[in-house]
Amino acid sequence: MIFFVIFGSVYGYFNFIKEPVYTSSSQLFLNENSADSTGNNNGLRDTLFLMSTYSSILESPEIMDAAISKNHITMTKQEVLNNLTKKAGTESVIMKLSYDAKSPEDARNFLETLTQLYIQRFPDYFKNISIKIIESPELGKLKSNEREYILAMLVATFFILMNITIQIIRDHTIKSRKQLLDRGVICLGEVIHISKRDLFEWRREGRRTGYGKKKES
């Protein structure tokens, strides 16, 4: 029951309450134009080391602010950056970009503008690097909520296990004088709730000291 309540709530929120989010993506290939006299392209190695720097140029005012202005985006620059994902590491000269927006057109248009501005302005920073678009931005696709669903399932499972644990503990709680006597424990006065662990410790102590044993006739 708990599982269905939690999972149903998460499913209902993302499918009927929260506004849909669309994602558009693109890929850029960056490479240095020079090669040494032996024919070895050392530019590739240098490009790999600087991929993080190249991706940071996207956030420069000449590129990011211009893209925001051209698309008439009313969000702040930080909000736009939060919707932008950049993947550029030291193992590939391909930069992957994706942008989230509330409509498929907005996602594509902004990423398309950003990509073109990046290619135009990049030579101002690095003149010997060429950039080629290997995946152009397309209409944004509805963003999947699989991660949120998995998280909801894990949370629901956690609460179910907690509930089972509580029920097990309750089932092994001493609630009456008769329960103590049935287990060979001498009881004087009122009976308080005793956990199974406490009862085990008491019985072990009783066996060690001989307390509570019946006298032999």
From TrEMBL:
Q: What is its main location?
A: membrane
Q: Which Pfam families match?
A: Wzz (PF02706)
Domain of life where this protein originates = Bacteria
Quote a single Gene Ontology cellular component term: plasma membrane
InterPro entries per UniProt: Bact_polysacc_biosynth/exp, LPS_length_determ_N
How does the UniProt record describe the way this protein sits in the membrane?
Multi-pass membrane protein
User: Where does the record say this protein resides?
Assistant: Cell membrane
All residue ranges annotated as the Polysaccharide chain length determinant N-terminal domain in the record = 2-70
Give TM segment ranges: 149-169
Provide this UniProt record's keywords sorted from A to Z: Cell membrane, Membrane, Transmembrane, Transmembrane helix
UniProt lists the family membership as follows:
Belongs to the CpsC/CapA family.
Q: What's this chain's function? A: Required for CpsD phosphorylation. Involved in the regulation of capsular polysaccharide biosynthesis. May be part of a complex that directs the coordinated polymerization and export to the cell surface of the capsular polysaccharide.
Q: What is this protein called?
A: Capsular polysaccharide biosynthesis protein CpsC
Protein source organism: Enterococcus faecalis RP2S-4
